[in-house]
Design goal:
The chain has about 500 residues and is an alpha/beta fold. It has helices spanning about 5-15, 55-70, 80-95, 95-105, 110-130, 170-180, 195-210, 220-230, 245-255, 280-295, 310-325, 345-360, 395, 415-420, 435-445, 480-485, and strands spanning about 20, 25, 35-40, 45-50, 140, 145-155, 160, 185-190, 215, 235-240, 260-265, 270-275, 305-310, 365, 370-375, 375-380, 385, 405-410, 425, 430, 450-455, 470, 485-495. Helix 3 packs across helix 7, helix 4 packs across helix 5 (about 110-130) and helix 4 (about 95-105) packs antiparallel against helix 7 (about 195-210). The protein is globular, with a radius of gyration of 23 Å.
Amino acid sequence: MTDFTTWQRLAHTQRFDTCAHIAGHAHAALSGETFAVINPATNALLAQVAACDEADVDLAVRAARNAFEHGPWARMAPRERKAVLLRLAELILAHREELALLDSLSMGKPVMDAWNIDVPGAAHVFAWYAESLDKLYDQVAPTGPGTLATITREALGVIAAVVPWNFPLDMAAWKLAPALAAGNSVILKPAEQSPFSALRLVELALQAGIPEGVFNVVTGLGEQAGRALGLHPDVDALAFTGSTQVGKYFMQYAAQSNLKQVWLECGGKSPNLVFADCQDLDLAAEKAAFGIFFNQGEVCSANSRLLVERSIHDEFVERLIAKARDWQPGDPLNPASKMGAIVDATQAARIMEHIADADASGARRVAGGQRVSINGSDNFIQPTLFTDVRADMRLAREEVFGPVLAISAFDHEDQAVQLANDHIYGLAASLWTDDLNRAHRVARRLNAGTVSVNTVDALDVCVPFGGGKQSGFGRDLSLHSFDKYTQLKTTWFQLR
């Protein structure tokens, strides 16, 4: 583990890649345009990065198509692709400090979260999908005598992956690992706030043995590079994690172009239900704090709505206020910091506007709510708690994407479920109870892709992650992820 001084020294000497990566080579935008990437924890310029547009995206798609149609990757035996992806997983771990630092500097998260969670998590995802490859079997259909029908999975071809800034390396791994494992070629567009770990990852992939053109990275703004990927007629599928509004744009782009498959994992406003029969309220409060303050609350599945049974409401809120004190923001390079900087000034201002609106709407602020200045940057926000939040308030309806928790009381189980489900989102939910019957009963009734019982935001590579309603319908992780990146082919043999 690296100490504060060492992280500061490493940050001072860190190299930043500034070019996109197409067909195995660094690529400056054809227009010559760049965009600035700013360290939100200091407001210092990190680098000017290539701002790719439609012309650059077309080059990347052509390189990916050529690699898929004529290169060796899609025709390798599963065990050969497995070996390459396992080498990539090892290289990610070998560059653990560098990758953690790149994500921390660009989007503000505590570097130790990236070092302890994000980087080993990304390596594990690549290794898990690599190990799955020679354990997947195709099918033979139960047809009649004299016939043989096989059902096989085949790679789709060219995949576009558009990922957000809150978990730059992890979100890339979630989409890249199964797409590459299946034999596709991929074009990754990282968020403009956090392109650096993606650009380092593509270099490591080439070092691991992934052929040129199979994995490309196109940097740029969403309305230019992202839109071009969505509209390109030779992209076979697009996987996206980000806001619901942008997800809707990608659906439109698919309809306007080639009806490409679009797999969306969008916003959330996940409820966390705490019943009075929960025996360990201190653990529930600790997890409730983690569920909203981890990663500065910049988590699509953050437990941002807390619903507490009225008989324990006041006691639970007091416990939660005490837990929130441990989540004060600090320098992201300080290993003691549990919260870092908000990704940029625009997002920080948006969060503060939500806080001001909640104050004006009659919600009761019981903790936090202020910006904090550290190292000359005020992109830090205190952990913030509001009680008396009505279901019609913006704080209860809109995704804040920051360390702000909306707390409401309920009187009985039916009301709790109704409040939880009365929302446009359906990504995740949590509930706390020591009644086994209630746990099963309520979990079945909650509209969420993942329901965590007596914990929050449970996650593992072996189970699918995704939601419903306007949280989208895609699923990352698990073997089900292969459904996004492959197509079924039936081959019918009439025997003589």
